[in-house]
Target: Guanylate kinase
Amino acid sequence: MSQGVAIIMSGPSGAGKSTVCHILLEQDDKLSFSVSCTTRQPREGEKNCVDYHFLSREEFESRIAAGDLLEYAEVHGNYYGTLKSAVLDQVKQGKSVLIDIDVQGQRLIRKACESDAELASASVFVFFAPPSYQELESRLRGRGTENEESLNKRLNNAKAELEAWTEYDYMVVNHQPQQAALELKAIIDAEKVKVSRTDLVKGWPYV
Ligand SMILES: Nc1ncnc2c1ncn2[C@@H]1O[C@H](COP(=O)(O)OP(=O)(O)OP(=O)(O)O)[C@@H](O)[C@H]1O
Ligand SMILES: Nc1nc2c(ncn2[C@@H]2O[C@H](COP(=O)(O)O)[C@@H](O)[C@H]2O)c(=O)[nH]1
Model:
């Protein structure tokens, strides 16, 4: 069985990561989504254990203490963290998993890769960018989830996040969600057939 790919995606809030993940998840039932833990309040329509595991600060801290998290960070004033089980189990079973995390979380996964060869060989880092800063602001306002204070916090944090793009293996500029989904799919498909991840067919090289 070939190894799965862990697609670590970051980009500023409002770039369209969740939108594009949803498009791909609907198209490919072999792809899974790493449901993160967060102390943020659920938004209207968000479901516990589907969009996030919504936890109190105490619950989140006991997850940290139990060693359940692959990485965690304080993002826009709340804790967010990736469950080891959401990533490592999937990859071991040959499945690919989309991991939507911020730039700090991406750096922590890179660090974890230094001492985890399996994670390192599964990981692909994709930066997600909006076409412009103005468009980012307009998308974030248009989403209608933020008050003026949290919107400004996210837009301010976006400046540092946008500068981190050179740390990634790939860059997707989200002009249009379907096109961005196609680009992300092309990255995943190419990564799946990398020689380092491909099982040899029986009898290879036949001669
Ligand atoms: N290419 C696009 N053109 C116009 N609007 C878009 C595009 N992609 C996403 N959007 C819209 O922009 C808003 C932000 O998108 P989304 O919530 O997917 O961003 P995100 O990067 O996941 O944000 P966060 O990091 O806060 O979770 C949503 O209202 C979404 O419908
Ligand atoms: N370091 C981590 N960052 C995460 C994780 N899950 C989500 N995120 C990032 O948080 C922001 C804000 O998300 P929102 O849902 O409140 O809009 C976003 O940029 C995500 O990428 C995580 O597990 N670890």
